[in-house]
Amino acid sequence: MADASFSSPGDNRRLAEFLGDGDEVSLYRAMLLIRRFEEKAGQLFGMGLIGGFCHLYIGQEAVVVGMRLAAGPSDQFIASYRHHGHLLACGADPKAVMAEMTGRRGGLSGGKGGSMHMFAPECEFYGGHGIVAAQVSIGTGLAFANAYRGDGRVCVAFFGDGAADQGQVAESFNMASRWRLPIVYVIENNRAHPGSAGSDAAILAQRGAAFNIPGEQVDGMCVQSVREAGVRAISRAREGAGPMILEMGTERYRGHSMADPAKYRRKDEGRASLAPDPLERLREKILSAGLAQEADLKAIDARVRSIVVEAAEFAANCPEPDAGDLETDVLI
Questions:
Q1: I want to staple 95 with a disulfide (CB 3.0 to 4.6 A). Which of 109, 119, 314, 321 is the partner?
Q2: Residues 158 and 39 sit within 8 Å (Cβ to Cβ)
Q3: Which tens digits make up the pLDDT trace of 22-74?
Q4: In DSSP terms, which residues pair with 77 in a beta bridge?
Q5: What H or E segment, with its residue span, contains residue 39?
Q6: Would you say 242 and 213 are in contact if contact means Cβ atoms under 8 Å apart?
Q7: CA of residue 69 relative to chain centroid, distance
Q8: Measured between alpha carbons, how far is residue 223 from residues 58, 67, 141, 170, 277 in Å?
């Protein structure tokens, strides 16, 4: 099993290190890295080292890890502001991600994007977008460019159930269907956005029916189920059959952001009532199948924690942007 150092620039090699051999143990390690990274980010936010908003991905790790494993190395990912896990899954350096979250010069966006606006085109990741559903239309544009060039690449656009009602989503569906664009729309339905918490009456996988876009509901808490659905959808798009919607049933175990006390959740809705933790689910499978021993998983956790600690220390010691950087990378 490969041990990732995450010390080189973002490239396919680091992506391969992150995903390992694609076996259960490698996927567990990948998901655990995202979980521990987000836990540390929550701590840094509480300490005042991360300003603004901070939206954690805890509980949803199986979605992005499964989709990254299903995608090809040159396929593009684009997501919302809850995208730290997506960056790590694409092979971004944890140090650069954490440095950006703390507003430091060594961050992916030079310390000017913060937690919500990070890009890593060298890893085929095209944002973190703070405007709700903006990534859907931009991702559709990426898919249009892929189709125009005929390069065989597929764009995977992630958005939440709270973004599904945005007008630009329907407009994007219409264009993607009419032009048979190579894109997969992944709706991360955690059923807990502040606007309609607990409401799961609508089957979001059917949102594309009016545009002749097929949809599928997927167990987003099972990384293998996500991977299998992702392979089907991405292969379909790459073969020229057009877009597909994957509705991932998942849960986020924290508030909408670190500033959110989640008072809109039902008072009786504790963690025990939520879907099985994807990490614990995979861990039990690994142990019961004899794929690894308890000591092996503890060693993985120790290594992952050390990577996250190194990232936090790097961020804390990295200088802030210079005043002159205010006018760089900006159209004025």
A1: 314
A2: no
A3: 899 999 999 999 999 999 998 888 887 877 888 899 999 999 999 999 999 99
A4: 125, 156
A5: helix 24-46
A6: yes
A7: 12
A8: 14, 8, 28, 28, 11
